Amino acid sequence: MFSAVTSEGKTVYLMKERYAATEASELRKTKFFCPVCREQLDVKLGSLKAPHFAHKQNKACTIEFEPESAYHLEGKKQLYSWLKAKGCSPVLEPYVKSIQQRPDIIANVQGGMLAFEFQCANLAPDLLYKRTQGLKQAGAEPLWIIGGNRLKRTSRHFFQLSAFHWQFMKENPRQFLLFYCPEARSFYKLHHITPFYANYACASLEAIPLTKANVKDMWFSASAPSFQPAAWQSAITRFRHKPPRFLSKEANHLRLLFYEKRQTPLPFLPPEVFAPIPLGAVFLSPVFIWQGHLYLYMTDLAEKRMSIRFSAVFRFCKMQIQKKRIHLRYEYSEQLLREALKQYINFLCGKEFLIEGEKEVYMVKYPVHDCRTLEGVMERDQTCFGE
Ligand SMILES: [Zn+2]
Questions:
Q1: Could you tell me the pLDDT band of residue 109, with boundaries at 50, 70 and 90?
Q2: Where is the Competence protein CoiA C-terminal domain (predicted)?
Q3: From ligand 1's centre to the CA of 4, what distance in Å?
Q4: Is residue 162 very low, low, confident or very high in pLDDT (cuts 50, 70, 90)?
Q5: Is residue 235 part of a domain?
Q6: Are 263 and 378 found together in one domain?
Q7: Domain co-membership, 100 together with 175
Q8: What confidence score (pLDDT) does residue 269 get?
Q9: Gap from CA of 76 to ligand 1 centroid (Å)
Q10: Rounded to 5 degrees, what angle do the CA atoms 123, 125, 126 make?
Q11: How many angstroms is it from 33 CA to the middle of ligand 1?
């Protein structure tokens, strides 16, 4: 941390990049205390990390659990200077007694109070929830910024996202993820996060250098990159050429169902079970699993020349969730689940796989295609996802 209090109760910040010898020895002679637990602190003026205060070894603070990394200290400092330059009157590491929390920075943004939390280390989901609620209760809007060192890109439009990342999406799955890297001095925003597998998602990355960043960019991007259907299609192609070698219980169950009902092996699954849905992160199950169950349900009805009611699709999906054939990422509201399914149905209507007759009543438009060759099914991918 950069702030501490003296025995006279004065708050001192260590904000310089480096301290001259006389200043340093003066600082080392002074006693500094943690504003939260009141324990005496060490003054750290080494060269590996920015000058900062730290609790003595083996002294646990009531709200701090681990030493801050150089990366975290540096990022916090840069964000603070940036907010100051933008005229947001930031306060570094304020201790908000009513909630016993100390956010990294609190700033005044367009008349509202905003709490910036720069999270580089792992954080238990219940702690994230508790801190988010606490800050709201104290009247501050929390903005979680993830350490740029936690951004794992596997290809241009694909990212490895773990439970650590998904927890930040939990409050609002429509959200983007925001990262900051103090080494690159840049924000990174992930838009259109659409999972293919549980922890592997297609997304569009936007880099906003700190020198060009406005505070409002954190919520609104004038030039947010669009979703990349070609990247998504390439993931489907990879799946067809090389389906996952180890199948989970739920994937194997779906594989058997497709084989029994449609004589379709896994690499030939229809493109309709790979729809990139904006709210796809609601599901923990891979895209082809949750959509695969719904696809079989709808095409079974179509074979019997029966129409498909949205309410029935919704009921069917909830039943599959109960039977643990489809897994949700979190306990989501019914409304959000309904919205995700609606997006899927609308996608199928857009691709003229379904046609809507009466409101929320659908028919499958053509006799269902069952492609028997990889070429055939990839041609259908191209019709479905190609530009
Ligand atoms: Zn303390």
A1: confident
A2: 228-372
A3: 9
A4: very high
A5: no
A6: yes
A7: yes
A8: 95
A9: 18
A10: 110
A11: 8
Find out whether 337 and 329 touch, Cβ atoms under 8 Å.
Answer: no
Q: How far is the CA of 218 from the centre of ligand 1 (A)?
A: 31
64 alpha carbon – ligand 1 mean position (Å): 7
Q: Are residues 10 and 158 in the same domain?
A: no
> Is it the case that residue 63 has pLDDT exceeding 90?
no
pLDDT for 110 equals 84
Q: Ligand 1 centre from 177 Cα, in Å? A: 30
Look at residue 234 and tell me if it is in a domain.
no
258 and 304 inside one domain: yes
Claim to verify: residue 38 and residue 135 sit in the same structural domain? no
The edge-to-edge listing of strands for the beta sheet with 152-155 is 91-92, 105-109, 112-119, 141-147, 177-181, 186-197, 200-209, 158-160, 152-155
Of the residues 68, 100, 118, the one at which a domain ends? 68
What is the whole-number distance in angstroms between the Cα of residue 65 and the centre of ligand 1?
A: 9
Which tens digits make up the pLDDT trace of 9-45? Answer: 999 999 998 999 999 999 999 999 998 888 999 999 9
pTM, two decimal places:
0.90
- Is 310 part of any domain? yes
Q: 6 CA distance to ligand 1 centroid (A)?
A: 13
Work out how many domains the chain is built from and give that number: 3
* pLDDT at residue 248 is higher than 70: yes
Residues 6+ apart with CB under 8 A from 213: 82, 187
Q: Which of 142-156, 159-173, 342-356 has the lowest average pLDDT?
A: 159-173
| 236 belongs to a structural domain | no
**Domain boundaries, position 158:** 69-227
